[in-house]
Specification:
With 210 residues, the chain is an all-alpha fold. The chain contains five helices and no strands.
Amino acid sequence: MGIIFGKRKPPSRVTQHDRAVLQLKQQRDKLKQYQRRIEIALNLDRELAKSLIAKGQKDRAKLLLKKKRFQEQLLIKTDGQLQNLEQLTHDIEFAQIELQVVEGLKIGSEALKKVNDALNIADIEKIMDDTREGMEKQQEISAIISGNLTEEDEEAVDEEFAAILSEQMPEVPEVAVTVEPSLPEVPTEPIEDSIKTKKKKLEEPIALEA
């Protein structure tokens, strides 16, 4: 025989505070509805009293106005009750906000306390001392190594350092240099004077040897 197990319902997130606020708001809404009904009845009674007076039924009209006056007093009392409900609802909601703030402060205070407990001052001082000692020891080792190197070793280290730097520098592309062709010399003498000079040299007699 199989047994059917029903799923458990998740716990409700509605608190007593939420239920109280909901009930107050419901009472507020009922009072507002009651006020609207009274206001409608007052208007009707006034119109009816006018009609009765016009018909000469003054006694009935006066009795109706007394009823109207009593309802007006109820309406005033309802206004006071409505204001009290509004104020009470506001106070409860504000108290809930204050409670949430206090809970948040409490959680933050506990978290801060845990952090402070984890940060032990003695441990922090020990860590700082160990770090300082490690740095001093490293400086001593560097000083010992540097002291054992000769001048030649120092120069070799500098050359190797410069070589590494040159390898890491970007290569500069080679630029081709073009040589412009040389032009023939331009004679400064006018062309006509040059021709005359050459013609004169040809016309000169050739000197014969004696």
